[in-house]
Each structure stands twice: as structure tokens, then as C-alpha cells.
Amino acid sequence: MYRCAKCQRVTTARSSAHSVVSDIRPREYTHRANAIPVAGGKRRKRAKRDDRGGRGWEIRSEILVCTDCLPEAQSELNAKIEALTASA
Fold first, then answer.
1. pLDDT tens per residue, range 15-41
2. Contact criterion met (CB below 8 Å) for 63 and 22
């Protein structure tokens, strides 16, 4: 049993909870040299590769919603992503 973050109803026992991303933020990752260890052979040293960095999204917060509120919560997230990509 849990309380839905959208409709504030307490669900019945054994009902499934859905974790939905409620807020995101854009993030830029910098280049890092020798950041990723790569396994070598039996007697070889571990080599290291560079991490290229790049752009992406970070999750700012998540909420638990019931099955009835799941489509609405997902559509709100999609609208936020479209708004952020349009402004960038």
C-alpha cells in the first residue's frame, strides 16, 4: 500500500506502484582522460580509455503513481522534455 503522488489516494494492498520521473535537468559532461579501465589479458596491465563526455539529462526527482495516473504522469514528462529541447 502506498499513497499516489498524483491523486493522493491510498492504493489497495498488492497493487503495483510505478516510479515515474517527475523532473529533469540538462547536463553537460566534460572530457576525462584515462577514466575508464579496460581489462587486459592474463599478465597485462589494465589499460585505460578516455571518457568522451557529452550532453544528457539528469533525473532531478521521481514520484510513485498508481496505474490510473501513469499515462498522465508520462505525458507530463514528455511535455517537459519537448519544452526543454525546444528552448535549447
1. 999 999 999 998 999 998 888 888 876
2. yes
Tell if the pTM clears 0.85, that is, is over it: no
Rounded to whole angstroms, how far apart are CA atoms 49 and 31?
11
CB 66 within 8 A of CB 14: no
Asked if 26 and 81 count as a contact pair (C-beta separation under 8 A), the reply is: no
**What is the Cα–Cα distance from 56 to 34, expressed in whole angstroms?**
21
- How many Cβ atoms sit within 10 Å of the Cβ of residue 76? 15
CB of 67 closer than 8 Å to CB of 10: no
Helices (H), 24-69: none
Distance CA 12, CA 55 (A): 41
